[in-house]
Amino acid sequence: MPAQTLTATLHVNGREHALPDLDPRTTLLDALRESLGLTGTKKGCGLGHCGACTVLADGRRILSCMALAALYEGREITTIEGLAPEGGAARPHPLQQAFVERDAFQCGYCTPGQIMSAAGLIDEGRTGSPEEIREFMSGNLCRCGAYANIVAAVADVARTPLVPGAREPEQGRS
Amino acid sequence: MRPFTLERPHDIATAVAFGAADDDQTDYIAGGTDMMQLLTDDIRRPGRLVSLGDGVLDDRIEAAPDGALRLGAAARMSDVADHPAVREGFPLIAEALLSSASAQVRNMATVGGNLLQRTRCAYFRDPGVHGCNKRAPGTGCAARDGVNRMLAVLGGSEHCIATHASDFAVPLVALDAVVRLSGPGGERTIPVEELHRLPGDSPHVETVLVPGELITAIEVPASRAARTSHYLKVRDRESFEFALVSAAVALDTDGGRIREARVAMGGVGPKPWRMRGVERALAGAACDPAVLRAAAARAADGTAPRPGNAFKPELMRRTVLRALRVVGGQP
Ligand SMILES: Cc1cc2nc3c(=O)[nH]c(=O)nc-3n(C[C@H](O)[C@H](O)[C@H](O)COP(=O)(O)OP(=O)(O)OC[C@H]3O[C@@H](n4cnc5c(N)ncnc54)[C@H](O)[C@@H]3O)c2cc1C
Ligand code: SF4
Ligand code: FES
Ligand code: FES
Questions:
Q1: Alpha helix stretches (DSSP H) within B83-192
Q2: 2Fe-2S ferredoxin-type domain: which residues (chain A) (predicted)?
């Protein structure tokens, strides 16, 4: 039994969702999956270790399993469902396209978290080299071990040279 | 997770009043990255969870004209690591933060919460284990004769050998940083080095904070040494792992002579451990390989390892030496 119920409003992928009767224990992850039906965001460990639950809050990558939904009222949440511009599957986000082209997954369970994390990473501008991508993606585990192709997919979108020193002069942060 | 009520006050006084209430039911939550683990694993069981997020604490990062740093307790680890005044004036702090946790955790976690995170001792984190004096006073210490690879070689007691897991706190202790506190009795300021208590016979009492007391800010004094500094973290995985041992080193040198040295270590004790013996061996000496080696040899003075972490004293000496060589430009 909850000790209290709250009413909270979440902003997810550009839409408002009222959550009446919210148990304060509810994580953002569970609210997204169970209440809003947005099951693209995955639950791996529920303890901050794996990154499967990564979403953006006001454009920055966070772990939705470590967030109480009620404390994320008023923040703009972006999930994998809201990453691509309108048009969904027909017009995937460049990261989604790159993951397909680079074959950057096997079972696909970690993939939404990887892609949301990569979106945050590219915005942070920490994509200067494959080593930097690896370090700053270390919060996203892949039990299938698709790491090499994940790094390649992220590097494609960030236009990071996979061979050291091959960066073209005009490119910077995307 | 047990049921709790969630409170979202907007000012320090209200938050403190909740925490100081004599029903002993309140826990604070800031970024939530440690508290959510403790709640999920049934290690903390508050009746009332009080959020510090809705304007209770500020998240400003400010550098004074003399270079001193003030961090609002709600400042995020990632924002502090990326701030130009931190990157340029305090590289050891930026490096300690960037070697902590993952990018997602650093975007959520506050610097105040970082100092108050609980130990990673596996027995503390597993409520299925019976013997843990820190979690359940008087039940013994499963780690003493159990798996203690990560645990303390300095400052422990027969009742607890847990380490404090924060990386960020290590450079703070090296640089004589202080925390500003606000509590039921008013405000006070204490050195970060005195924030955590040694376990003694009451390992469940970890800090000198009184019930309801909040960290409102962290202040780091201006430091010339901090400009040439390094945080070296040695761990079992290359990334996203806690320290086996770590060293924060800052040197102020003048024409090849060391004016001032600041050295502290993480992963070795119940709180960040200032290496005053190493500092004394460096102060006033020439910055040359023999001096650095002799000073680093002092890093493990007084250690009392257990069988599972008997490697730590030698690793401590080598870690300090490597960090000193990097900072002193003596590869
Ligand atoms: C997967 C993972 C890996 C990690 N790896 C590392 C690592 O390598 N190095 C490292 O240093 N840390 C690591 N951490 C720990 C992380 O840095 C801490 O969890 C984080 O800094 C805590 O900050 P928070 O704001 O989330 O605190 P919370 O979880 O909200 O709170 C932590 C504690 O502090 C109390 N509290 C918070 N703010 C205040 C305040 N202002 N005044 C009084 N009490 C307060 C809370 O009541 C609680 O007891 C890791 C964490 C995770 C989840
Ligand atoms: S070392 Fe401390 S935290 Fe770990 S089991 Fe012993 S008493 Fe508990
Ligand atoms: S489910 Fe959130 S980090 Fe694993
Ligand atoms: S693709 Fe299976 S876990 Fe990453």
A1: 84-89, 91-98, 103-108, 111-115, 169-174
A2: 6-83
